[in-house]
Amino acid sequence: MSAPKQPIQSHILSVLVDNEPGILARVVGMFSGRGYNIESLTVAEVSDAAHLSRITVVTSGPANVIEQIKAQLGRLVPVHRVHDLTVEGPHVARELALIKVAGTGEKRVESLRIADIFRARAVDSTIESFVFELTGTPEKISAFIELMKPLGLVDVSRTGVVAISRGAQAM
Amino acid sequence: MQSGKQAAPAEQMSGAELVIKALIDQGVEVIFGYPGGAVLPIYDALFKQNAIRHVLVRHEQGAVHAAEGYARSTGKPGVVLVTSGPGATNAVTGLTDALLDSIPVICLTGQVATHLIGSDAFQECDTTGITRPCTKHNYLVKDVNDLARVVHEAFYVATTGRPGPVVIDLPKDIQVAQGPYTGPANVKHKTYRPRVDGDEAKIKEAVALMAAAERPIFYTGGGIINAGPRASELLRELVKLTGFPITNTLMGLGAYPGTDKQFLGMLGMHGTWEANHAMHDCDVMIAIGARFDDRITGRLNAFSPGSKKIHVDIDPSSHNKTVRCDLNIVGDACKVLEQMIAAWKQGGYKPNRKALDAWWQQIDQWRARDCLKYKTDPKIIKPQQAIQRLYELTKDRDTFITTEVGQHQMWAAQFYKFDKPNRWMTSGGLGTMGYGLPAAVGVQIGNPGKLVVDIAGEASILMNIQELGTAAQYRLPVKVFILNNEYMGMVRQWQELLHGGRYSQSYSEALPDFVKLAEAFHCVGLRCTDPADLDGVIKEMIAIDRPVVVDVAVDKTENCFPMVPSGAAHNEMIVAEEGGGDSATVSEEGMALV
After folding, report:
1. Quick check: A162 contacting B, CB < 8 Å?
2. Does residue A34 belong to the interface with chain B, where contact is any CB pair within 8 Å?
3. Is A170 inside any structural domain?
4. Domain with A46 in it: what CATH number?
5. Nearest residue to B107 via CA among B167, B56, B152, B60
6. Are residues A84 and A106 located together in one domain of the fold?
């Protein structure tokens, strides 16, 4: 008797909030309490003077659930604005990753070659390992990680997506 | 003495005194609370003043329910003061209740000193962490300079937009530190500005839709009550202007006169035959301050399938949450009703008389079903009969009714008719057994001299029975009217209808003697077992100017009908004469629903 299945879409939400204690718990608790997905989440203060933070959250669900997520975010008292970048127009979305690869010989050389193609930088190096720094779309980072697997991938640390609208206007 | 400063320095006082001063400036007259180690400075500040009265409850859950009862019956926010740790955790059920029913409550909780937070100190708990999902907002005050602002902000947040509970957690060192006082006029919230006015274009569209309707219905809820008495007056005006039928949710009873002939009674799981059928068959639904709760809609994909739906709500997250509506208007119910009436008059609209007459004829046929009918018995008191007699004997005075949760609550909603808002206090969203007695205490504090009756069940009342002590201490003549069927009646009813009559743990074994129990609490106990004595006992109860507990022995097997079984549609209701043991009406998916 469930409602007809709607396609699941991934959305990037940009949420401007008061930088006050507990705000992240409030946002994350709302997602878990109401059974919504968080694919990635980043948060940092963006205005020291106004004590504002921006939370970028990537979430997924059918269109009506996304609408409800936005309304529920808007309902939190310290939330200033909620923007759905996925529907609001052109935007830039980027992620940063640090990727540790260990190996010697030809594998080590190959990892460096591929890193060059992806414009990843080696930010740490030992005789038997590299740490690469890579920014780009989540897809690009995932592709790089896939390629590193047979070459001695050890650890991955990703920031999750940060995003901003294109053009001159503020969000 | 400092010289050269233009503005006078803000008045300095202790955190505890700041709190009390801020409460006084917010117009608070009464606090419901319970002292403890972490709030002693505030209790000391309370002791030294006379502007605010403190009501000592017997359990912190009772304090929050009392504040809710006070808020719902007076329209003013309720204020609670409890200590840290168990004081705060005991308040959680009340806070959740207030959140789900959108009741403005400000709850001050004590906390261990800031340097002890996180050390598992005595009576420490993460109050803001625990209450985050069960409050509209909460604060932990870590700097006495923020204290006055936070208290004023809390009142603003609790009472504007969709109201709700707000917790202020106050570490003990903040209560004793000296800080400046700021008055309410100087505090403006940074972000929170709920939208009050409805979008004019949408209002025009809504009114045009209403005028063209052939089978319209108003479906209104607690939002009308929360918007203040004027919203109820405007609702009456609009309903009279249009001639449309109206139904109320459990939370909305009293917003429209229960005795008026355009009123179809309550809708939903235990709503009337006519209200539910009219909802199912309508072509235009005007929902105002109601949130399409699952107790209202029944099976969602069969809910009012052919109607255009207009939804007015102050909370944008209520729109399209469970039911997709055609026209969503964000705004305060009072303001939007005003706009709707103006737009209706301005547009020179007239309802479609001919279609409306046919619609009323159809409704009259549903009404003729007489769905609340029950059989009386010369020997056994029927619970419906007890409430009907209570209504008949109290309707001529301004009576306030609270309830616990269960069958008695639904019978009260069906048989007690409310002609005014703020007279009916019941736990709708959370369904909290034990709500009614402490709520009645709060109602009586806010409405001295008025008749306040808690319609209760024998199981629910035991959940907060200790509040009889509060009633006795403050000489609050609340009446506890227990419909005693020796069962958790609604559990028993579902077990009968859904679980093959296996009454697992629903019998109220080893009940106390309620008359003696009342007497032990310095209250009056009465008992009624014979239908012939019912009127006499009710009259006696009303006449006694003290708290009274009436133990009414009612039919143990009576079920509450009509009933929309879980997972069924509005037009698949079961009524009394066909009700008994018909488990076939509940689908397998329905069995999984609450």
Report:
1. no
2. no
3. no
4. 3.30.70.260
5. B167
6. no
pLDDT class of A171 with cuts at 50, 70, 90:
confident
Last residue of a domain, one of A88, A123, A146: A88
Distance CA B71, CA B97 (A): 13
The reply to whether B172 belongs to the active site is yes
pLDDT, position B579: 53
Residues A16 and A83 in one domain: yes
- Structural domain includes residue A169: no
Residues of B in CB contact (< 8 Å) with A are: 128-129, 132-133, 136-138, 140, 142, 157, 189-192, 299-301, 315-317, 319-321, 324, 567, 587, 589
Q: Is any Cβ of chain B less than 8 angstroms from the Cβ of A113?
A: no
End-to-end Cα, chain B, rounded Å: 68
- Chain B CB contacts of A79 under 8 Å are 191
Instruction: Give the pTM.
Output: 0.95
Q: Which two tokens stand for residue B396?
A: 């001529």
Distance separating alpha carbons of residues B281 and B293, to the nearest angstrom: 19
* Tokens, residue B257: 């006169």
Residues A74 and A144 in one domain: no
CA–CA dist A67, A73 (Å, integer):
10
Look at residue A145 and tell me if it is in a domain.
yes
CB neighbour class for B305 (10 Å; exposed up to 12, middle 13-18, buried from 19):
exposed
Beta bridge partners of A42: A56
Angle between helices B15-25 and B40-47 (to 10 degrees): 60
Residue recorded with tokens 């699941």: A8
Any CB–CB contact under 8 A between A62 and chain B?
Answer: no
pLDDT at residue number A1: 39
Residue A56 lies in a domain: yes
SS3 B534: helix
Q: Helix-strand-coil percent breakdown of chain A, rounded to 5? A: 30, 40, 25
What's the number of domains chain A is made of? Answer: 2
**pLDDT tens for residues B71-107?**
999 999 999 999 999 999 999 999 999 999 999 999 9
Report the candidate in B68, B57, B51 with the shortest Cα–Cα distance to residue B32: B57
Q: How many residues are given for chain A?
A: 171
Pick the last residue of a domain from A88, A112, A142: A88
Residues A14 and A79 grouped into a single domain: yes
**pLDDT(B511) > 90:** yes
Q: How far apart are CA B313 and CA B467, in angstroms?
A: 35
Identity of the residue numbered A127 = I
What is the share, in percent, of chain B residues with pLDDT greater than 70? Answer: 97
Residue B584 scores a pLDDT above 50:
no
Contact B314, B175 (CB under 8 A): no
Domain enclosing residue A65, as ranges: 9-88
* Closest C-alpha to B167, from B46, B67, B29: B67
What number is the ipTM of this complex?
0.92
- What's the length of chain B? 594
d(CA B593, CA B98): 23
Intra-chain end-to-end CA distance of chain A, in Å? 40
Looking at the structure, do residues A66 and A19 belong to the same domain, yes or no? yes
Q: Do A23 and A72 belong together in one domain?
A: yes
Q: What is the CATH number of the domain that holds A145?
A: 3.30.70.1150
The pLDDT-based confidence of B585 (bands split at 50, 70, 90) is low
Q: Domain check: are A84 and A149 in the same one?
A: no
